Fold Bifunctional NAD(P)H-hydrate repair enzyme.
Amino acid sequence: MTCTCSRLPKEIPLRQAHTVAQVRAAEAALMAALPDGTLMQRAAAGLAATCAGLLPRVYGSRVLVLAGSGDNGGDALFAAARLARRGARAEALLLDPAKAHAEGLAALLAAGGRVTGDAGAFGRADLVLDGIVGIGGSGPLRPAAAPFATMARRGPVVAVDVPSGVDPDTGEVSGPALRADVTVCFGTHKPGLLIDPGAEYAGVVHLVGIGLDLPPAPVAALQHADVAALLPVPGAESDKYRRGVVGVAAGSARYPGAALLAVAGALRGGAGAVRYTGHAAEEVVRRHPEALVTEAGPARAGRVQAWVVGPGGGDGAEQALREALDTDAPVLADADALTELGRLGPALLAGRTAPTLLTPHAGEAARLLAGIGEHTDADTVAAHRLRSARLLAARYGATVLLKGSTTVVADPDGRARTNPTGTGWLGTAGSGDVLAGLAGSLLATGLGPLDAASVAAYLHGLAGRHAAGTGAPITALDIAEALPSVWRSLTG
Ligand SMILES: NC(=O)C1=CN([C@@H]2O[C@H](COP(=O)(O)OP(=O)(O)OC[C@H]3O[C@@H](n4cnc5c(N)ncnc54)[C@H](OP(=O)(O)O)[C@@H]3O)[C@@H](O)[C@H]2O)[C@@H](O)CC1
Ligand SMILES: [K+]
């Protein structure tokens, strides 16, 4: 089978995202060492170059700047001035004319651009620059700018640094926001560009370096090369035990399928063997003869380097979870085990010395949040992904992989990762069971929970894309079966 993924670029570095506070501190240090306006010119030059690349030709194109009164508007006005000097018909719509960025506006006018008060220019433009607000904004778009969030447009919208109305630190969107086709961000990614719903508003994100000296990023998205470097490779001396044994406590008389799918994921996640315990032993062996099965629960199941507990676990989930948590192996809790954990609260994890990885979808995350007294629902969790995942990680003292349109992994130490490979086709019954098995298998090979979770999410997303091809419904088993191909595409 040919894997379409093998054509993906391999050298793209880790996408790092910094908070507004970190960007501000780096900006202040650099600005103190450079002549006034240097950073804005670097930003405007990169922005103008991206815009020029999006236009069939710059000369004669209609470019509209939506300009707020901060430096974000300044960047947009200076970039439009550069395009006007190349013959573009550039206009600026000033949202608060009295407070417009004076130097940027002067540059635009000097280059032959003009100011317009006609909101209809938005729909006629060949390209719109969203310079309403960047990292200095807060809350939803103000009334003067809000109508542009829903207006029809002809040409692409290019967001300057951040789509206006998207929270740069979290990706939360609390009201109207500009929907961009491309976002040109400066110095670093902002977390809000990598996490839905903000990521969806950002479109394709293009980073323009401006020379900021930044600390380690609190949020990152692994790329191909990062994942390839983390994948376990068996050594010459490896046998199945040295490669790691993953235990899967899953499935019930009512849900035997979840066991099959979790084992299918676990068999393809790098561990040397899969040890299954639960009510679906017969089905598991029939479908996966390579699995070891045992009647005993996690407490007496034999050698296991990481446990996966909960998919389709039914009534047995609490007992299996308690037994697995009593071992000194890493434990991944999913599905019914998460429901039990939400009911019993974080005290159940107290005293663990090995890592715990929780893999909730938004509904299960809401149940876990209830376990710490935060009563909410799935939609609210999905709207506040980073915050929800971080809160759960901190309060449960566990790594949390929050599944969804952007999967977010949060570590109790505060680091977070977002997964760039997701696809809507992954939203299929049993897909989460495969992911749980896969992530547990990576844990058993010795990866830490943050790496195991983010590598699993990456592989799972690529496998979903590979299985769906140019676009077709897929089953959870299709995802599992595509895993060896995408693994090869990363290492080949
Ligand atoms: N960091 C860097 O290294 C570099 C940063 N650069 C650029 O600077 C940008 C940051 O500029 P900034 O600090 O001037 O803030 P900015 O985003 O323009 O917003 C302030 C304005 O927004 C308004 N406003 C607030 N909320 C709003 C809302 N909800 N809806 C509507 N309006 C709202 C607020 O209004 P006010 O409260 O004053 O009435 C004020 O007028 C950054 O994103 C990047 O583009 C580059 O030039 C190169 C180097
Ligand atoms: K903007």
User: Anything to note?
Assistant: The pocket of NPW (ligand 1) is lined by residues 23, 27, 39-40, 43, 68-73, 75, 132-142, 145, 160-161, 186-187, 210, 212 (CB under 6 Å). Confidence is low (pLDDT under 50) at residues 1-12.
